[in-house]
Amino acid sequence: MKSSYMKILYIAPLPPPINGHSLVSKEFYDSISAKHNVEVINLRKQSLKEGMDSIQRIVEILKVLARTFFKKSKTDAVYFTISESLAGNLKDVLIYMICFNLLPKMYIHLHGGSLKRLLFDKYPWVFILNRFFIKRVGGVILSGDSHLEIFRDYVDRKKISIIPNFAQDYLFLSEKTIRRKFDQPSPIRLLFISNMIPLKGYLILLEGFLALKADLQKKYVLEFAGRFDTEEERSIFEEKIKGKKNIRYHGLIDDTKKKELFEKAHIFCLPTMFFEGQPISILEAYAAGCAVITTGQSGILDIFTDQVNGFQIRENSPESLTKILSDLLVEQKSLLKIALYNNRSAVEKYRVVTYTSNLKKVIGL
Predict the structure, then answer these.
(1) What are the Cα distances from residue 297, in Å, to 191, 239, 274, 301?
(2) Average pLDDT of the residues in 310-316
(3) Average pLDDT, stretch 329-344?
(4) Can you identify the CATH homologous superfamily of domain 169-349?
(5) Which molecular function GO terms apply here (predicted)?
(6) What pLDDT does residue 231 have?
């Protein structure tokens, strides 16, 4: 149903805390909240860990279910970002049950890439339960073609929309600025921005970097930014980099600092072992004119081609990273070409306005 003014039940995480998932949810929310009656059910969680790991988390979920029940009446459309953890998925199933009569008006959005491998393949009963509800929804939204396999056997292909993520406007650099930063890239600046969890590969990056010969290390600066889940993990990491002048950890950063780091960076590194959906940080690196070093996760390969957007390394392999960093010092000229190509493709495909208008089209707003 298309209407100039609609009531939308918006079940998604909004910041704080800021992460890729809450960021994309906020941009879409901001694009529709002025013109529609948007009832928010905030799915945010404070911890980086998955699952119901505390009484507080269980209470949060019970509140989500209660709010969904009380706010669902007279809803024209439901926008729902679904989870990939077992506990999160059981919460999703309860939301499907509460909104059963609204399923034909529900659009579910999957941001991750691990739902099939970590959940549906492991627990057939979870898959059967989800399939019962998901085949009844109005539409499924995915970030890339690699995630089609999760739904294509039981959801009509016409109901599945592919909408890539985006980089925020403030991170886009002009061609002139990009050329200037690569004019004399000495030292070459490497940047890691993500949650500081082992699966995102920050320790692999550190190990690979430290394995470089001392004279090669001096030609780089390595910068980390992101949130640790515990103070203990943070202090262990800070101890590892103590006294190393060309390695810095900036902690949790705001947009101003993020812009500053991306503006200076030549290469963005994300040696992730995570089943990625489509990392926003890679698209942000494209916008800011950076080459990218990353792994071949299927969700990443929807937006990344080796030797075109940057350099693909083996998963969980510091050696693979060390080799690339050694080789790059000889092939520095290729970096500018890659950076300009990445920026152009981000301008064409990964703008906020492209993302939000495509979502509105799918939901009929």
Answers:
(1) 19, 30, 8, 6
(2) 98
(3) 94
(4) Glycogen Phosphorylase B; (3.40.50.2000)
(5) glycosyltransferase activity
(6) 95
